[in-house]
Amino acid sequence: MEKKIKELYDIQLALNATTILAITDAAGRITYANQKFCDISQYTEDELVGKTHRVINSGYHPSSFFKNMWNTISQGKTWREEICNRAKDGSIYWVDTTIVPSCNEHGKPYQYISIRHDITEKKRLAFELEHRLIYDAVTGLPNNVFLQRAVEGKIQQQEPFYLIKINIDDFKSYNESLGAEHADQILKRIGERLTTFLKEPSFLLTRTYGDEFVLLCKIHPNHIDTYIQSLFQLFETPIFHVDSDYYVTFCVGAVYYPDNATTFNNLIYHVNVAIEEAKRNGKNTYTIFQNEMLSNTKKNLQLKNKLYKAIQAKSFMMYYQPQWMAQGNLTGFEALVRWHDEEWGFISPAEFIPLAERTGLITPLGYVLFEQMLKDIETLQKAVGTHITISFNLSLRQFFDAQLITRLLDLCALYHIPPHIIKIEITERVATSNIEHVILIIQKLRDIGMDVELDDYGTGFSGLRYLTDFPINCIKIDQSFIEKYLTSVKNKAIVDSMIHVAHELGCTTIAEGIETKEQLQHLIEQGCDSFQGYLLGRPQPASYYEQHELTFDDH
């Protein structure tokens, strides 16, 4: 007997040393609390005995939680769960709890023994991991995991809602020019401004990807256009960061539940379709998803497959539009791509070039077109009987290809074409992407003998800075300015000033889109150096010039 008593005493010592113990009567009043219980709850045993566990109730659990507990233990069954309690000083702690009923000979509980272990640190780590899982580290906003849970909850409750995706235009340029740390700070400020746009507490703003935010909101379909337009107005004032203003533009896509989709994955797919449609329409635009857009998406997929095969087969043609000097001399041609598909016929560059840029096919396409141009140069030289230059437009992706200079030189060597007869055209979009790198590549192109022209000048926001910083030879005045040159006083002033400033900086000028003799004559009088446009010759294949003589006098 003494041995048994000692064994029970040893067990009690072990439990008291490692376990939070409490015993209650059948009504739940505490009859015993060990020191571990007193330590974690910060109550003395005298303060606990005679009380129920309501004294440490944190309010975290719903009443149904404890109702389930009592239903279980009152039947003489053991119950186990994790419980959040509140200590005397108001702090929260968590315990892994097992309640074992002590039953009389009739199976009715007369007391309950609670065995608990402190799991506060474990729960803190779990909450921290959960927070990292569902919240974005940069903006502090909920992330895509959180969004999916929220959307699926709305779907389960069959509540109508809109998903509005916001994709920031050209955010890559922020990372490249400012660095990731400053770009993240701008993202954070964008998130803060978007947060002020939440009209109702039930609206949810999330950051789901690097340059994308998604709004989950309950808006009537009749008001969605107005809501999105006010979103654009929110960013009419710039984001201020480190003594500088940054104007933010973006594309927006919107999808409606339940009309457009009934699952989270389909809603995301359809809002992405809407975003892509908005991007095709230009920057700072929005598109509300319509079911017929899916057929456009299917067509784009088919076009991508055709484009890939056409690149492999090199089944593109190059057309050449003549460029003339003011004195009437043919100075060269601009190379322009044409694509004829056996099934679809001629496919416009305006349709397949943006697709090639979005899919990354623009780089291999660019080299295929450059090679085709090199093949045609001998034909063009013989046809016009004079030395000419050929202008070739490099895309943004191809311009930043690490192998660009090597590939261009290798192709020129393969076809025995001296690089100095090639003029590389870059757009303002290329010029403003990564200034230091752009200057480096332009200089490398100049070093191998190629001139560099700034194409579509005046359509972007580069101003005069890039004329002074970049080692370019020529600027091309965009046809949108030439079109209104004689009908708009402002346009004429802009074009005339472009010509003057370019000359002062040592650059030549070429006006594109010349369609009337009056435009041509006035531009000659202003000192513009070269011209191209339908008045002076439409784009034609190289073979055309073998059979047709080109003269400036006809114009």
TrEMBL record:
<feature type="domain" description="GGDEF">
    <location>
        <begin position="159"/>
        <end position="291"/>
    </location>
</feature>
<feature type="domain" description="PAC">
    <location>
        <begin position="77"/>
        <end position="131"/>
    </location>
</feature>
<protein>
    <submittedName>
        <fullName>GGDEF domain-containing protein</fullName>
    </submittedName>
</protein>
<feature type="domain" description="PAS">
    <location>
        <begin position="1"/>
        <end position="64"/>
    </location>
</feature>
<dbReference type="Pfam" id="PF00990">
    <property type="entry name" value="GGDEF"/>
</dbReference>
<dbReference type="InterPro" id="IPR000014">
    <property type="entry name" value="PAS"/>
</dbReference>
<feature type="domain" description="EAL">
    <location>
        <begin position="300"/>
        <end position="553"/>
    </location>
</feature>
<dbReference type="InterPro" id="IPR029787">
    <property type="entry name" value="Nucleotide_cyclase"/>
</dbReference>
<dbReference type="Pfam" id="PF00563">
    <property type="entry name" value="EAL"/>
</dbReference>
<dbReference type="InterPro" id="IPR001610">
    <property type="entry name" value="PAC"/>
</dbReference>
<dbReference type="InterPro" id="IPR035919">
    <property type="entry name" value="EAL_sf"/>
</dbReference>
<dbReference type="InterPro" id="IPR035965">
    <property type="entry name" value="PAS-like_dom_sf"/>
</dbReference>
<dbReference type="InterPro" id="IPR052155">
    <property type="entry name" value="Biofilm_reg_signaling"/>
</dbReference>
<dbReference type="InterPro" id="IPR001633">
    <property type="entry name" value="EAL_dom"/>
</dbReference>
<dbReference type="Pfam" id="PF13426">
    <property type="entry name" value="PAS_9"/>
</dbReference>
<dbReference type="InterPro" id="IPR000700">
    <property type="entry name" value="PAS-assoc_C"/>
</dbReference>
<dbReference type="InterPro" id="IPR043128">
    <property type="entry name" value="Rev_trsase/Diguanyl_cyclase"/>
</dbReference>
<dbReference type="InterPro" id="IPR000160">
    <property type="entry name" value="GGDEF_dom"/>
</dbReference>
